[in-house]
């Protein structure tokens, strides 16, 4: 059915014709009769609930047409939920696959500079070929939905990482690749592996996105009380995983205390003797 017909206009517009534009549709007038019809439509003739449902269907259809069918990286679920449960605003782990090495990283801030929810952003670092991909993950993450949409840039980057030349007898299937690498994601990330992966790879992301504040300041000085309208930044607390030697439970407990008391941390490029997480926790 053409969106230029009277029936389409009746479904898409609410008197002033604005609803169709809000839903991203392009409508065409077929002569003065259609224009007269549009002006005669009363706002009361619209069914809001039907328009909302229809707009959602159109949005989903547009995403499929423009972005393709998503791939669900469902095995991120346990790792994501564990990070949320333990107040750890960071995910970092490696997945070796064939002759490539794929580093998965997520950094939970309040909001990105673009205003997006950072819990939806996946950084995929292709370590052998030194390529960093940033992609938004769609869906309810707490329910195990991490939909990613692929494109030609991802296809080329993965081919480069795996050193795939041409199609061969069995052409490269990007969708199959993501299904296989999803199956290779572990259920649990060892803390030592997490910290090692983060330390080795965070500079790649930090050069552009600043997921760590003042990365050159690596020595912990002490706590700083924040005013009521401020809160500890993940970009500052994350430095504990990178620059401080402490076990998982100690770091997690310390971060929880800092957030509860609304305290942040001061760092310096010069070492201050005698400062440890344990002594700071006793003082707090």
**Number of helical elements:** 12
In total, how many domains does the architecture comprise? 3
C-alpha Rg (nearest Å): 25 Å
Shape: globular
Strand content: 15-25%
Please report the total strand number as a whole number. Answer: 8
Task: Calculate the mean pLDDT score and round it.
Answer: 79
Please state how the strands of the largest beta sheet are arranged side by side: 2-3-4-5
Q: Which structural class matches the secondary elements?
A: alpha+beta
Span from first to last CA? Answer: 67 Å
Model regions low in confidence, pLDDT < 50 over at least 5 residues: 1-46, 61-66
SSE arrangement, N to C = HHHHEHEEEEEHHHEHHHEH
Largest sheet: 4 strands, antiparallel
Helix content range: 40-55%
Oligomer: single chain
Secondary structure elements and pairings:
Layout: H1 6-12, H2 18-22, H3 32-40, H4 48-67, E1 71-72, H5 77-85, E2 90-97, E3 100-107, E4 121-126, E5 131-136, E6 147-148, H6 152-162, H7 174-183, H8 191-209, E7 219-225, H9 234-237, H10 239-243, H11 248-260, E8 263-268, H12 277-283
What does this structure look like?
With 284 residues, the protein is of the alpha+beta class. It has 3 domains: 6-67, no CATH class; 71-209, no CATH class; 219-283, no CATH class. Helices cover 42% and strands 16% of the residues. A hairpin with a 2-residue loop joins strand 2 (90-97) and strand 3 (100-107). The longest helix is centred in the first third of the chain and has 20 residues, at 48-67. It is globular and about 65 Å long.
């Amino acid at each position: 059915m053409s969106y230029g017909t009277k029936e389409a206009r009746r479904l898409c517009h609410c008197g002033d014709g604005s609803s169709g534009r809000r839903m991203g549709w392009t409508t065409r007038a077929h002569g003065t009769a259609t224009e007269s019809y549009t002006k005669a439509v009363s706002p009361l003739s619209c069914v809001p609930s039907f328009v909302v449902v229809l707009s959602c269907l159109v949005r989903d259809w547009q995403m499929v047409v423009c972005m393709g069918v998503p791939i669900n990286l469902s095995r991120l679920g346990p790792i994501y939920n564990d990070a949320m449960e333990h107040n750890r605003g960071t995910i970092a782990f490696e997945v070796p696959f064939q002759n490539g090495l794929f580093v998965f990283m997520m950094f939970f801030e309040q909001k990105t500079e673009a205003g997006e929810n950072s819990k939806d952003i996946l950084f995929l670092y292709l370590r052998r070929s030194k390529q960093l991909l940033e992609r938004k993950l769609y869906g309810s993450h707490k329910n195990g939905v991490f939909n990613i949409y692929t494109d030609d840039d991802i296809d080329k980057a993965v081919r480069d990482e795996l050193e795939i030349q041409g199609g061969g007898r069995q052409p490269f299937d990007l969708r199959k690749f993501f299904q296989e690498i999803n199956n290779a994601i572990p259920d649990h990330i060892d803390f030592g592996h997490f910290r090692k992966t983060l330390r080795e790879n965070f500079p790649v992301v930090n050069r552009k996105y600043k997921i760590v504040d003042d990365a050159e300041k690596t020595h912990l000085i002490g706590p700083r009380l924040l005013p009521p309208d401020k809160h500890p930044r993940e970009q500052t607390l994350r430095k504990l995983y990178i620059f401080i030697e402490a076990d998982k439970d100690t770091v997690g407990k310390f971060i929880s205390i800092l957030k509860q008391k609304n305290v942040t941390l001061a760092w310096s490029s010069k070492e201050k003797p005698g400062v440890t997480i344990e002594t700071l926790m006793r003082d707090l």
